[in-house]
UniProtKB/TrEMBL annotation:
InterPro entries linked: AAA+_ATPase, Chromosome_initiator_DnaA, Chromosome_initiator_DnaA-like, DnaA_C, DnaA_dom, DnaA_N_sf, P-loop_NTPase, Trp_repressor/repl_initiator
Chain's role: Plays an essential role in the initiation and regulation of chromosomal replication. ATP-DnaA binds to the origin of replication (oriC) to initiate formation of the DNA replication initiation complex once per cell cycle. Binds the DnaA box (a 9 base pair repeat at the origin) and separates the double-stranded (ds)DNA. Forms a right-handed helical filament on oriC DNA; dsDNA binds to the exterior of the filament while single-stranded (ss)DNA is stabiized in the filament's interior.
An annotated Gene Ontology molecular function: lipid binding
Name the record gives this protein: Chromosomal replication initiator protein DnaA
Annotated SUPFAM superfamilies: P-loop containing nucleoside triphosphate hydrolases (SSF52540), TrpR-like (SSF48295)
Family of this protein: Belongs to the DnaA family.
Domain notes: Domain I is involved in oligomerization and binding regulators, domain II is flexibile and of varying length in different bacteria, domain III forms the AAA+ region, while domain IV binds dsDNA.
Source species of the chain: Ruminococcus albus SY3
């Protein structure tokens, strides 16, 4: 695997994030533009702080450089940590011979670096129980035919919960990898809560729920990451409830991850919470210092990167709560050593750590982000909130938006009225209504607290 490919993958992820609805309009790019002009590019080489990409025609090159040249330059700088100039070259269908001579063969990584397995999962006191449960689920399929497997004997459903970036997805993917490798005949589905929702929305839009049901309700092993996202979305919860029942009654294994204990999801239907309590729940916590050092050393080994003990200790001391940040730091140091010919050093590590910390700071809380978060929580649209519709659900969402704009953004009533195209004289009334409501309605207070928490953490 060419390491420049890894860099370009991160660049694509950065660009795709700019298509999100929470990105300010002046920085946002359209999803169609991303797919038509950016995603079609191919990585070629990097020399002297210039990233060379390949386009299929002069037209694609010109359109991409004109519309997205600055975006690509910024994306490479964000990934690499220093200024990069992007140059797009035109290629034919066949790879040029000269390209083959400048492949960075000596920076190839082990395939294991990109595969989530139980072998490359670093265990510690913070995750040992979750690891044991997940491994047991995967091992119960060994030396058995599908008809012989009894999920009731091993943790069904299994729920792993904990903060983001602590290894929940790694454990899920490790189950998928091991079972699919040993039992390719089984129908294994790994997805995320967001993907599950998006698939259902599409199925409803095209009146094609039959295929959606066929896919999920006939799985032998269903793994859903970040299931908490369905909380508060009634139609999605109904669908998940019936899917869960079909699989559970058919004695099929279900594995879920969540950022909090399911019983603490205030907007999760009681019937779903009850079903989830039928199995086993295990948490993952932030790794201790020794585990963090082991994670850094293992990632460096997979990337064929030699780090001194001092560099490893520095990273472990500065980044304490997120495994992804640890691994991302090691990957960025590897990229720097390849493209600058520098050896890993304390100063390099400090620079990368600073960039990692800054890049993981919550995004600016804009008016659009607040409206989007409230709209998602109340299952309405941003346009609904800005509209004059008086439907009760839209009306309360609009009032909650006003409250949060005042509490979180500190906006004046005049500014709030202008942002929502409303008469500012009514903003005071709506704010007071919500303030009083939250004192007497615990469920609504929990919902508002969740919205504010999401805004501050993203």
């Amino acid at each position: 695997m060419n390491s420049f490919n890894d860099v370009f993958e991160e660049v694509l992820k950065y660009c795709y994030r700019l298509t999100g609805s929470d990105v300010p309009n002046d920085k946002r790019i359209s999803e169609s533009g991303y797919r038509m002009w950016i995603q079609v590019l191919k990585p070629y080489k990097m020399e002297n702080n210039v990233a060379y990409l390949l386009a299929k025609s002069d037209f694609v090159k010109q359109q991409t450089m004109t519309a997205y040249g600055d975006v690509l330059n910024k994306a490479f700088e964000e990934v690499m940590g220093f200024p990069i100039k992007v140059d797009i070259m035109v290629s034919g269908d066949d790879e040029p011979e000269e390209k083959k001579e400048i492949r960075i063969e000596d920076t190839e990584l082990s395939d294991e670096a990109d595969v989530y397995t139980f072998d490359n999962f670093i265990r510690g006191s913070s995750n040992s129980l979750a690891y044991a449960f997940c491994n047991a689920v995967a091992e119960k399929y060994d030396d058995k035919n599908a008809e012989q497997i009894d999920p009731d004997k091993v943790f069904n459903p299994l729920i792993i919960y904990g903060d983001s970036g602590l290894g929940k997805t790694h454990l899920m993917k490790a189950i998928e990898y091991k079972v699919s490798k040993n039992h390719p005949e089984l129908k294994i589905i790994y997805t995320t809560g967001e993907a599950f929702i998006n698939e259902l929305v599409k199925a409803l839009e095209f009146k094609d729920t039959v295929n959606f049901h066929e896919k999920y309700r006939n799985a032998d092993l269903l793994l859903i990451d970040d299931i908490q996202i369905i909380a508060g979305k009634e139609r999605m919860q109904d669908e998940f409830f019936h899917t869960f029942n079909e699989l559970y009654n058919a004695r099929k294994q279900i594995v879920l991850t969540s950022d909090i204990l399911p019983s603490k999801m205030t907007k999760l239907q009681d019937r779903i919470s009850t079903r989830l309590s039928l199995g086993v729940q295990a948490d993952v916590q932030a790794p201790d210092f020794e585990t963090r050092m082991a994670i850094i050393n293992r990632k460096a080994e997979l990337l064929q990167l030699k780090l001194s003990d001092n560099v490893v200790r520095l990273i472990a001391e500065k980044l304490k709560t997120n495994i992804r940040q640890l691994e991302g730091t090691v990957k960025k140091i590897k990229a720097l050593t390849v493209y600058t010919n520098e050896s890993p050093s304390i100063s390099m590590a400090q620079r990368v750590i600073k960039e990692i910390i800054i890049s993981n700071q919550p995004s600016e809380i804009t008016v659009d982000r607040i409206i989007s978060e409230v709209a998602n929580a109340f299952d309405v649209t941003a346009d609904d909130i800005r509209s004059n519709h008086r439907h009760s659900k839209i009306s309360i969402a609009r009032k909650i938006t006003i409250y949060i704009l005042k509490e979180v953004k500190g906006m004046t009533y005049t500014q709030i009225g202008d942002a929502l195209n409303k008469n500012h004289s009514t903003m005071t009334i709506h704010y007071r209504d919500v303030s009083n409501l939250l004192k007497s309605n615990k469920e609504m207070k929990d919902t508002v607290d969740d919205i504010i928490k999401n805004l501050k953490e993203k």
